[in-house]
Amino acid sequence: MSFLEKIFGKKENKTACEYALAGEYLCAKGQSNKAIKEFDKAIALEPDNDMFYASRSKAYKNIEKYQEALKDIEIALKMQPEVALYRKIKRQIMVFID
């Protein structure tokens, strides 16, 4: 049984936060492609949650999909322009785009 199954079980109807937490765990384990799928599910349930876009942005950056990463962090910044972490993430992405 995986760590995620221990936490969530085989629950069918997960909350957006549960999907996002699974995405964070997978990202930390170096499984960014799987993490992105979890963030996609979280965003589908809660499209107004800026943190989900920021987290998916970091996952995209990890797999060198910089345009997708930039798009997501810009969405997060549009929702919460005062969050310094989002501006930092954007600067980190822009290093690879410029």
Features:
about 100 residues; Serine Threonine Protein Phosphatase 5, Tetratricopeptide repeat; single chain; globular; mainly alpha
Explain what you see.
This protein has 98 residues and is an all-alpha fold. It is 76% helix and 0% strand. The chain has six helices and no strands. Helix 3 packs antiparallel against helix 4 and helix 4 runs antiparallel to helix 5. The protein is globular and about 40 Å long. The N and C termini lie far apart (43 Å).
Write the layout of secondary structure elements.
Blueprint: H1 3-8, H2 16-28, H3 32-45, H4 50-62, H5 66-79, H6 84-97
Helix pairs in contact: 2-3, 2-4, 3-4, 4-5, 5-6
Summarize this entry quickly.
The protein has helices at 3-8, 16-28, 32-45, 50-62, 66-79, 84-97. By secondary structure, it is mainly α.
CATH level 4 superfamily: Tetratricopeptide repeat domain
Q: Quick one: CATH class?
A: Mainly Alpha
For the record, the count of structural domains works out to 1
CATH topology: Serine Threonine Protein Phosphatase 5, Tetratricopeptide repeat
Helix-strand sequence: HHHHHH
Major sheet details: none
**Any low-confidence stretches, pLDDT <50, length ≥5?**
none
Q: Determine the mean pLDDT.
A: 93
Structural class category? mainly alpha
Per CATH, which architecture? Alpha Horseshoe
- Principal-axis shape equals globular
Percentage of residues in helical conformation? over 70%
Radius of gyration using CA atoms only? 14 Å
Strand % is under 5%
Euclidean distance between termini CA atoms: 43 Å
- Count every beta strand, where a strand is a DSSP E run of 2 or more residues: 0
Q: How many helical stretches? A: 6
